[in-house]
Amino acid sequence: MIPELGHFALALALALALVQATVPLVGAARGRTPWMMTARPAALGQFAAIALAFLALTYVHVVSDFTVLNVVENSHSAKPMLYKVTGVWGNHEGSMLLWVLILALFGATVALFGNGLPDTLRARVLAVQGMIGAGFLAFMLVTSNPFLRIAGIPPFDGQDLNPLLQDPGLAFHPPFLYFGYVGFSMAFSFAVAALIEGRVDAAWARWVRPWTLAAWIGLTLGIAMGSWWAYYELGWGGWWFWDPVENASLMPWLAGTALLHSAIVVEKRDALKSWTILLAILTFALSLLGTFLVRSGALTSVHAFAVDPDRGIFILVLIVATVGGALALYAWRAPTLAPGGLFRPVSREGALVLNNLLLTTATATVLIGTLYPLMLEAVGDDRVSVGLPYFEATIVPLMIPLIAAMAVGPLLAWKRADLAGALGRLGAAAGFGVVVLLAVLYWTDAAPVMALAGLALAAWAIVGSLVELAERIRLFRIPPMASLRRAVGLPGGAWGLVLAHAGLGIAVAGMVASTAFLQERIVVLQPGDTTEIAGYGVTYDGVEEVDGPNYSAERAHMTIRRGGDTIAVMEPEKRFYPVTRMATTEAAIRTTWLADLYIALGDPQPGGGTGRTVRLYHHPLVPWIWIGALVMSLGGLASLADRRLRVAVTARRTRLAAQPAE
Amino acid sequence: MRRKHQRTALLAMAVIGIGTAAALTLAALQDNLLFFYGPGEIEAQHLVAGQRFRLGGLVVDGSIRRLDDGLTITFDVTDTVETVSVVYVGPVPDLFAEGQGVIANGMLDRDGVFQADELLAKHDENYMPPEVAERLERAGHPTQ
After folding, report:
1. Which CATH number characterizes residue A115's domain?
2. Does the distance separating the beta carbons of A361 and B27 come in below 8 Å?
3. What is the pLDDT of residues A215-231, one digit of tens each?
4. What fold is seen in the domain B36-138?
């Protein structure tokens, strides 16, 4: 009964989405207010229906209803409750349901909180959201229905979820990632609606900004969580593999970051309008491409659990229709957008253009590296892979000028700026960069040049953003208490800038140091043997058998010593999941926040010996990667809390109310 | 500053940026592509010692042996027609097993033995990397 209810709710959502996609659009074109007003109840109704379907699917997973195919294939009665719930989106059908749920959530928030928007714009934005929703709901109902019952007699128990996915880090990675992917649909809908209206102005940029920011925060956290999971769960100590699926999430992030910056120029200076619209379309196009790459199984990856050509073709058609339609509209309408303010190359606008050029170029290189193997395979017979060396050779040279310029940009004035003056004010940042350089040279025997440059650059970026903060609160130039008052009164957007830029600097420091100064040791240890890594003595005391809820594990006991004192006990595990007959490696990690000691347990020796292969890593600064991402997200939140974003909306509303309708 | 000048300046920046990126990308692609071959293609492709590629196929039953140092393993990879010996030092992935599909990155040595520096076998036990399945089919053995 419950699955049928969910199925029905999905069909109802599709019907509502179709209404939402058409009626308000016609109403906006004809100037019929009641027609436009249908957008709001349709969007809210669509969200309610999808939420009901999502609850229904969660229910059948929680009670382990093995008459439903989706539950049989992805659950097991012995699975812990947390993973019964998160397993709802740990499979293709359920993850698509989460996708449309978040899409409808964004639509519903516009319907609820978009009072400040002009009626026609709100109607059109919701109509475009409705079109996307209708497309993906149809996709679900036709190719990926999660509520299908099993034919014949239901099995006694399920086939369990892929054990790699039974992990808290990965359990919450998809919701954040999808929040980001799907959140960019708002920027897309606003862009398409603006093209239909033929008007883009500072107010438009202020309306789009919160949605884009929210999406960007979600994506930043989602990517960071995925990379953290890969780091501790895959047992190889790496945190980024340039896997196509990772790239699929990185591309919208790069483009979305560019979009956030170019929207600032639209908001403050009324320039770069046409470019910003294009960027909004492309960012969502890359989100859709990411969905396609992951969901179609076009690429070899642990994520590609849908190896079904029908689904791939359906999503491809959806992408072509959505993006192709938007780009055609862009080609038709963009030339009518009035050109905006002028500026010199050396100016705040110029710096933001540089940011956009570098970020979009980086997006393009990741795109080429990700799709090249597919293209080569399509035209010929060759199977190739593009790996780490390609991405290192292309991304690193693009990131160096980006981070170098990141500290300078905020200190430049709008329209025309004094570059020498800005550089002069960054003396502290440059000085700190040199100090870091010398310190690294002093403490390490032979640091690679790129590592030195990378760490100095990270220091420059972190201190550079603090310089910007010091300038804003006039630190040391007015009494400290007055500076503090200024800091408290600083708009959210200013804090956002400082935190986001500093966060990137922190993350870069982590990436560079953990790559350049990684120590790795692979040894065979007998119980009682001691090995050494990075000044730690590690003694292997033996393994014991432990039983988990749906797995059995071998847990090793490792005593960590430093300078003769026992400082910790680490217990890496090797787990075996009997239902899926898969083994996973649970690494043990001990962090000092400046470095991680990482131990993974390997296979037993053949012939029943007591020795074990053990992998040990020492990763300097690796936690900084995720701390940096967290600081960046905090910056996004601070910016999102900026009062100006809301005050502007209300001010606009009163002004609009005073005007007669079009 | 006139509109025309601004546009020219922006355009120049874009051209320089994209030009540099294109040059970097092409150079990087040329140097860093890793081709995938099955054991049966090694001769036809004139693969010589020291040339990096990815080798894919099935791990031959009973071929995995661990040397006395406890870290080095040897095994054979087959497309069911031709077979290549592989040497690998280090811990193996969780899903590496006899009779399963495997992808190894590395190069041939002068004796025709594949020296792998990375093993990929991260999928579940029913899964076969598409490249491997395709190579097996080409060698005349349809999979399922």
Report:
1. 1.20.120
2. no
3. 999 999 999 998 998 88
4. OB fold (Dihydrolipoamide Acetyltransferase, E2P) (2.40.50)
